[in-house]
Task: structure prediction
Amino acid sequence: MSDLANQKRMAAAILKCGVNRVWFDPERQTDIEDAISRSDLRTLIEEGAIRAHAVKGNSRGRARARMAQRSYGHRKGPGRRKGAAGARASSKRTWIGKIRAQRRALRDMRGEGRIERSLYRVMYRRASGGQFRSVAHLEAQVEIAAGRMR
Result:
């Protein structure tokens, strides 16, 4: 077996890839040995005797699986956490999510006729003041207040 390092180097330059990606057809070895110019190598490339292996990438399959698990709460325990709670989900973002949900719930209750406008306004102000932990807490307080008003 002869040394094909020169042919491999020139083929890599023609194919615009690294030397390790160049593939020579073992059946056409004698033709490749005889190819000493770039034009000879180009001809062999066109014939398929020389080609470049595909670029190897890093599989994202495991990363996708991990993200799917995280989406339903796995891999999020205390041993995984680096930042403080406020760094992982800022208190402002948490507040925005909570107050929007409460205001939406109040609007729905007013629209359905479960609460009057006056009670809506009172509860809206209380929600803005941070009196309710959640929508469920808000609804419980609305039931109590609505019972008092009757």
